[in-house]
From TrEMBL:
It is an enzyme of class 2 (transferase). Its EC number is 2.4.2.17. Residues 207-278 form the Histidine biosynthesis HisG C-terminal domain. One of its GO terms (cellular component) is cytoplasm. It is found in: Cytoplasm. GO terms for molecular function: ATP binding; ATP phosphoribosyltransferase activity; magnesium ion binding. This is ATP phosphoribosyltransferase. Feedback inhibited by histidine. The gene is hisG. One of its GO terms (biological process) is L-histidine biosynthetic process.
Amino acid sequence: MLRIAVPNKGSLSGPASAMLHEAGYQQRKESKELVLVDPENEVEFFYLRPRDIAIYVSSGKLDIGITGRDLLIDSGANAEEILPLGFARSTFRFAAKPGTAQGIDDLAGRTVATSYEGIVDKHLADSGIDASVIHLDGAVETAIELGVAQVIADVVETGTSLRNAGLEVFGEPIMKSEAVVIRRTGADIDDPKVQQFLRRLQGVLVARTYVMMDYDCRAEHLEQAVALTPGLESPTISPLHNEGWVAVRSMVPTKDAQRVMDDLYAIGARAILTTAIHACRL
Ligand SMILES: Nc1ncnc2c1ncn2[C@@H]1O[C@H](COP(=O)(O)OP(=O)(O)OP(=O)(O)O)[C@@H](O)[C@H]1O
Ligand SMILES: O=P(O)(O)OC[C@H]1O[C@H](OP(=O)(O)OP(=O)(O)O)[C@H](O)[C@@H]1O
Ligand SMILES: [Mg+2]
């Protein structure tokens, strides 16, 4: 059985379980369940704190985990990213009261509050800055108001939490993060069970990113049309009963679909349809 760590709480938990469910795996029915065996797919899911997942995977007791890139790096664990998953996207930034800091050099001699000491310590060391770092478990935005630190380093998505606390970001982003699949560094990625798991998740990613587009066009416009819808490998072209017309089928990035439909219409294509892809193996 493949043993997989899944976040049990927080921003990563819901989307991770939703993706696994979309990939055909059973998922727990209630948030108190800590382990779930999916015998049909020969997988065992362990619902763990997001912060602990890299540690478990690096120990080799679990084969694979889903966590945040920032949490992986912060942990310093002997684990590595093998597939980015496109959700729980965030940046990791310094923030302070407006006008109190412009760049990393302003941190010298100051105190930085964070839940991600590993990332901050390394970033300060790499930048040659001597600052104190204080660890807080969460809600670090409040640390400045309460005088525990002059600067915070935290996850920023919409920026709402910072605005609400009267803070603003400064300096370059320390890192960009998203949910990722991890394994122990150097672990066997050729294991067929691991490969099958990754293919399933890749299938979900593709299904989320592309739509299937079908349309009819005159044979003389085919090259122009195909240039607009090159697909992943090559579009499927079928003859129509009407002489001089062909039907085209191709995958198109969802974000481009409306523009591509307009452009196809403009060159004379008709009966342009898009349909959702529910699953795929490329
Ligand atoms: N508002 C957000 N939007 C997107 N991703 C986020 C957001 N907050 C956190 N994340 C991402 O989720 C992961 C951390 O999740 P979360 O903050 O829920 O866990 P935690 O802080 O370790 O746990 P907890 O806060 O429950 O103690 C990180 O990868 C982080 O980048
Ligand atoms: O830019 P925003 O969209 O406001 O998102 C960022 C906030 O989300 C996370 O907090 P979380 O909800 O995990 O609480 P925590 O601080 O207790 O970890 C993070 O620590 C920020 O506070
Ligand atoms: Mg949090």
